[in-house]
Design a protein that fits this description.
The complex is a heterodimer. Chain A has 4 helices and no strands. In chain A, helix 2 packs antiparallel against helix 3 and helix 3 packs antiparallel against helix 4. The longest helix of chain A is centred in the C-terminal third of the chain and has 32 residues. Chain A is elongated. The termini of chain A are far apart. In chain B, 33% of the residues lie in helices and 11% in strands. In chain B, a hairpin with a 5-residue loop joins strand 9 and strand 10. Chain B starts with 16 loop residues before the first helix and ends in a 31-residue tail after the last helix. A 4-stranded antiparallel β-sheet of chain B has the order 3-7-11-8, sandwiched between helices. A 3-stranded antiparallel β-sheet of chain B has the order 2-14-13, with no helix packed on it. Classes of the chains: A mainly alpha, B alpha+beta. At the A-B interface, helix 2, helix 3 and helix 4 of A face helix 2 of B.
């Protein structure tokens, strides 16, 4: 149960990862002159929001002594995030290939 | 003295780290961790009352309504005679020897479990339970009397402690009902009430008082004899205080034997009751009410005060505390109060499809019927509400007959949750606004593993003591 006692660390970690990831993504888009269309923005932002929600529930569920709920949250919310991420990347790739 | 409330633009933070994290989201929450972790500090009660958190804050999905979600037939409502008519009194049983047999079985079973060193029921577990049980019940050293503790100023140290307004030579405290309610909400939290609601005694709500209370045209109420209490016939309000029990302890043994989280809560309730009476006395107002079995029906007043909704188990489910409410401690006062209305958080509709408490009740005492019904035919019940009437004897037989202090229905209720995961609030929001999803949410509660029987090998004796919330109360909701 140390995960629960150290849950502040996991929140800080995900903060850094999300912040760093956003900056990295921003640079990639700028460097390669990629412009996202509106639905790609929606999917990207939605993925971020759901990821935050999933992470909070994952850590908090361990804190509540409910490991099963924690892992199932990863499955139930992780799969849609992966699908949205794949759809977004494929959409960008297809668009770039066309142009 | 009633001081005018100053206009304030800044309030001290009473937000917990967890609330702050929830509000900001995870990444930003981490940045603000240090700032929000600072402890709350108020200079005085007035400043605490200024805090917006002293107002009744209901989540936006909880509606205030005029009549409770449980149907009540006020015209034909029976007044319950007294707490002595419940099944805790052997004389309420058709055959009192039946009760005594259950008690004997309890003693035998408890002794055997101690001899067998059963985890959670061993000698040290029992000793812990006994220690926490101290202070409960009418026989206890701290049991509040009908008219409150007989406090007197000390001649030596702190000589003005327990002074009344007359002793100070000032008039009694005066405030508007709204100010008084807000003041009590602050004071109640300090004294151990997780939440407060207020009910005015009128033609309807007087029926929730026990039958051994009578009104007389007197200036002050009094205790007529050991079983009869008198209230003055004037405007009176009932202060209804939620006394939660330890959800932290329930994760080890949800039958509440470990650390006696249920009786410990009654003990805290008694201490709270004495303190709120001393507070009212210090303001110059009347106060009445003894232990939990003295004033009236805890569930009835709790529902009317909007602290919770009536539920399938015949108890209360609160949007904040779930079913983990041990009691609603009642105090009658003549301090004018702004009443709190009943609430609708979709709970009773959820109960109709959920049935988790009934399915997991080891005694089979909770009804499985879809809809509530007009009942109350047994001598230990009272007619007047359309509810789910428990088979009380089955419950008591199981609870007292060998598996002491079962509170399984309270532990497994899908509303009884710790408050760390934001997910729980989303579920509650859905229950309140989208009842069509109730069946799925109940199934998901099972799939996610909530409400299962705790692992008997998981023992609180191995926990880092600093990880135990003070008094065993989970810091999240209480």
């Amino acid at each position: 149960m140390r995960l629960a006692s150290w849950n502040w660390f996991w929140y800080v970690l995900v903060g850094f990862l999300m912040g760093g990831g956003t900056i990295y993504l921003w640079h990639i888009l700028k460097e390669k002159h990629i412009k996202l269309v509106w639905y790609e923005w929606i999917l990207t932002i939605l993925s971020f929001v759901i990821f935050l929600f999933m992470w909070q529930t994952f850590i908090a569920s361990f804190g509540e002594g409910e490991p099963r709920a924690a892992w199932l949250t990863l499955v139930f919310l992780g799969v849609p995030i992966i699908i949205m991420a794949v759809v977004t990347v494929r959409s960008i790739q297809t668009r770039l290939r066309r142009t | 003295m009633n001081k005018p409330i100053p206009e304030k633009t800044h309030y001290h933070s009473t937000m917990s780290r967890r609330d702050f994290m929830k509000m900001l989201g995870l990444g930003a929450g981490a940045v603000g961790l240090g700032a929000a972790g600072c402890s709350t500090s108020f200079k005085d009660l007035d400043e605490m009352m200024d805090s917006p958190l002293a107002e009744r804050k209901l989540p936006f999905w909880v509606k205030e309504i005029d009549e409770p979600t449980v149907q009540i037939d006020w015209d034909n409502m029976e007044i319950f005679p007294s707490a002595f008519n419940t099944l805790f009194n052997p004389m309420s049983w058709d055959d009192p020897s039946e009760y005594m047999k259950i008690v004997d079985r309890n003693i035998e079973s408890t002794k055997q479990q101690i001899k067998d060193n059963v985890p959670g029921y061993s000698l040290r577990d029992r000793a812990m339970a006994d220690a926490n049980t101290w202070g409960w019940a009418p026989e206890s050293d701290v049991a509040p009397s009908w008219t409150g503790p007989d406090v007197k100023p000390s001649k030596w140290e702190h000589p003005t402690v327990f002074y009344t307004p007359e002793d100070y030579g000032v008039p009694r405290y005066e405030g508007t009902p709204e100010e008084n309610s807000r003041m009590l909400r602050v004071a109640g939290r300090v004294m151990g009430a997780a939440e407060l609601g207020f009910v005015k005694l009128d033609g309807k709500t007087k029926k929730l008082l026990y039958g051994n209370i009578r009104f007389e045209n007197v200036e002050q109420g009094y205790e007529a004899d050991k079983f009869t209490y008198v209230l003055p016939d004037k405007d009176l309000w009932v202060i209804c205080a939620v006394i939660p029990q330890s959800l932290w302890a329930a994760q080890y043994i949800d039958r509440m034997s470990w650390a006696s989280s249920n009786t410990a809560a009654y003990s805290r309730a008694n201490i709270y009751s004495n303190r709120i009476k001393v507070f009212l006395r210090g303001l110059g107002y009347q106060h009445y009410g003894g232990t939990t079995g003295t004033v009236g029906r805890a569930v009835g007043f709790g529902v009317m005060a909007g602290l919770a909704e009536y539920c399938r188990a015949g108890l209360m489910v609160s949007p904040q505390f779930g079913m983990n409410i041990r009691t609603v401690m009642l105090t009658v006062t003549d301090l004018p109060l702004a009443v709190t209305k009943p609430i609708d958080a979709g709970i009773i509709n959820f109960c109709k499809v959920c049935r988790k408490c009934a399915e997991m009740c080891p005694a089979g005492a909770i009804p499985m019927e879809d809809e509530p019904f007009w009942g109350g035919d047994a001598p230990y019940q009272a007619k007047g509400i359309k509810g789910w009437y428990q088979a009380g004897k089955k419950c008591y037989e199981y609870m007292l007959g060998g598996e002491p202090d079962c509170s399984r229905c309270q532990s497994v209720c899908p509303f009884t949750k710790f408050d760390q995961a934001v997910m729980h609030d989303l579920v509650r929001m859905s229950i309140a606004t989208t009842p069509a999803l109730n069946g799925i949410l109940r199934k998901m509660d099972d799939v996610f593993g909530y409400g299962k029987e705790p692992d008997p090998n998981k023992t609180p004796w191995d926990v880092d003591p600093m990880d135990i919330p003070l008094f065993g109360l989970d810091s999240s909701r209480s």
